Amino acid sequence: MTSSFEVPLTRREAVVQQLRQEIASGQLPPGTVLKDAEIASRLGVSITPVREAITQLTAQGLVDVAPNRTRKVSGLTQKSALELVDVMQLLACAGFAGGVENLTAEHIASLRKRYAEFTGALERGDVTAASAAGADFSTIVVMANGNRELQSLLDQVVVRTGRMMAMEPGSSLWHPWVTGYGEVLALLERGDRAGAVARYRQIYVEYRAAVEEILWHGDAEGAPS
């Protein structure tokens, strides 16, 4: 019999999770200097798990270390932004295609709920909640694939790419997801799983084009340079 007991987060894991969330939401914007003592005091932990967490976030590309050992939240260049989109596309589309055949009626109901939360948050102007609900929409399908390592890698890329989404609710970068998720959901509810996979892949084509437009023309506030 398999136990459902979940091992609690270690202090390092808890700090990693908290800092990753703050980076993704823009609470810690690119260029922010990370100081061990300040973070430890704010989070109510010792300096050791903070140092370990920052080391892990550095390995994941979320933190840059300057020659003088100063640690800063990393930024995005035009080249790295598009590279992140390409990596996210490879991981997410592979996970989605692998998980879609395992979806149950309960999964699809959860997708409908997440989509409502996603669009509702955008209507309220809450981009943090919209980002979380949008990521959960894909995660439901990817996790149905059963490949937790794939989801772990995807989570890291999504956090870094998410900075491009942390802008005004009306940004053109949201449009591929709002339209695409809605159409993917409709296809799944009709039982057209192959069509849903094809439409999901198309989201990334449209999203990359929107990112390129912003990068080259600077149409959106907060776009990477």
Automatic annotation (TrEMBL):
PROSITE patterns membership: HTH_GNTR
Keyword Magnesium: no
Cross-referenced SMART domains: FCD, HTH_GNTR
Pfam families named among the record's database cross-references: FCD, GntR
Key words, A-Z: DNA-binding, Transcription, Transcription regulation
Protein name per UniProt: DNA-binding transcriptional regulator, GntR family
Family annotation (CDD domains): WHTH_GntR
HTH gntR-type domain ranges (all copies): 9-76
GO MF annotations, alphabetized: DNA binding; DNA-binding transcription factor activity
